Amino acid sequence: MSADPILHRRIRADIEERIMSGEWPPGHRIPFEHELMAQYGCARMTVSKAIAALAAAGLIVRRKRAGSFVAAPRVHSVILDIPDIQADVRARGRDYALKLLARGERAPDARRGEETVLAGGGALLALTCLHLADGRPFALEERLISLAAVPEAAGADFTREPPGTWLLGHVAWTQAEHHIAALNADAATAALLDVDSGAACLALDRRTWRGEDHITHVRQIFPGTSYQLVARFAPAG
Question: In which domain, by residue range, is 39 found?
Answer without folding.
Answer: 5-72
